[in-house]
Amino acid sequence: MTFQAGGSFDIDAWDADKPYDERDGTKLTRVSVRKTFHGDLVGTSTTELITVESSAGPVAYVGIEHVQGILHGREGTFVLQHSAGSEDGTPGTQWLRWLIVPTSGTGELAGIRGVGQITVTEDGAHTWTLEYSLD
């Protein structure tokens, strides 16, 4: 059975290191992020990102996020793999996707699999959707 979940999250911390690679106007930077989730998932997470910035602004990132919380009444943890970017650094060209890492679920979320998406609203708020199944 496939479930749909959604809500919002707050970014509690965004700790960026100095760029570790800068060439021809492109910067690569490691960022540690902490979030609090609201909605169908109530919980927190820690994330490690590698961001790409060009003359157009922030244009891509990849990351791994460890989520701990309660999803539709089931408590546990799971890991999200991020893939995100923008053609020109603006919200209109953004794509922000999640993949639940198979076998990463624990507790009542053991066996969770699925995909999700982040949307950044015009006021900068973050909403999310998740389509998942449980073995």
How would you describe this structure to a colleague?
The chain is an all-beta fold and 135 residues long. It has a single domain (2-134), classed as AOC barrel-like, CATH 2.40.350. 0% of the residues lie in helices and 73% in strands. The protein has no helices and nine strands. It has strands at 2-16, 21-23, 26-39, 41-54, 57-71, 74-86, 94-100, 112-120, 126-134. The chain has an eight-stranded antiparallel β-barrel. A hairpin with a 1-residue loop joins strand 3 (26-39) and strand 4. The chain starts with a strand and ends with a strand. 17% of the residues are buried.
User: How do the strands line up in the largest sheet?
Assistant: 1-3-4-5-6-7-8-9
Let me know the largest β-sheet. Answer: 8 strands, antiparallel, barrel
Q: What is the element string, with H for helices and E for strands?
A: EEEEEEEEE
Low-confidence stretches: none
Helix content: under 10%
Distance between termini?
A: 9 Å
Backbone CA Rg: 15 Å
CATH class label: Mainly Beta
> Structural class, from helix and strand content?
mainly beta
Please give the CATH architecture.
Answer: Beta Barrel
Overall pLDDT: 93
Stated plainly, the CATH topology is called: AOC barrel-like
Count of alpha and pi helical runs: 0
Count up the domains.
1
Strand content: over 45%
